[in-house]
Amino acid sequence: MNILLTSIGRRPYLIRWFREALSANNLSGRAIAADLDPYSPAQAFATDFVIAPRVDDPAYRDWLANVLQEYSIDLAVSINDFELSEWALLPHTQEWAPLLRLTPETQRLVEDKFEMGEALAAGGVCTPATWLGSEVTGGVSTEKSGGTGSKFITKGRYGSASRGLHFATADSLSNAIEIATLEVTTRQGIAALEQKDVAPESLVIVQERIEGIEYGVDVVCDLEGNFAAALARRKIAMRAGETDRAETVAPDAFTEVAKKVAAVVPHPGVIDIDVLVDGDGNQFVIDVNPRFGGGYPFSHLAGAHIPSAYVAWAAGLHVQREWFESTPGTFGSKYVEAVKVDGAD
Question: CA–CA separation, 276 vs 330, rounded Å?
Fold first, then answer.
């Protein structure tokens, strides 16, 4: 089995884990890494390394098709939001069968944080009160926020990597929306590209700020979209919008919300959700990312091995239950490391 990992960038541990997954399933094969950075550390860990064009390059689709064919790829995984958006638009034909991706409709939904929140609420998932930035220039509606809102967060409606994220009070909210709007006016993606002739402030959402403990939860489904498991971590520290320190926790308390999210967002493999738990135990889903998130490594360190499940599913092999289990109370911390790479061509 040959696996392609694209936009792998600074997460070469995924390459190592997918190579381990081949061994765990008694399969031979290669783990090929692709990245637009010719000096990507991923090349030091991959069986083969391929330099990729930007996803918005007109040559990207031909490049991807050639790589899938040349390396006889059986499974292709991306961890880049923009690339996944492009993958969702590709035809569902045999040529593109190895791509692990959402349907265009589901991809469009997860890219639009406002519509995603509405869909989650309709599916019985608790979410913070949310407005479009264009709706609150004259002040927020206390009716929608339950009359309790005095602290708010702005986000890019189609944002990625915490773009447009600001904390505000009612007095500073208008200024926060203005700053966030300037930050998010350019964004690739299906849903964002469909927005034409709209108020710039509608590209920003405002959410009531929930006070509580934040958790990262992986919602794991098989490659047919059937719910398989949940993995959970308490976030201790963040860096550049990604979990940097975390403690694994028992997933039982989050299984129900994970199943509800899986029903609203049908998907193959892993999606990463952020859940805030307030003082009363209410679970608010505040973000959905349709890929391996930055928090998964902490569950992996605690015993989970989702890449092994990916490989088994793709090969039609038996999936071991322990691959979906992590030991609660395991603390993890990320660090910087350097590796030798080949020079650019």
Answer: 20
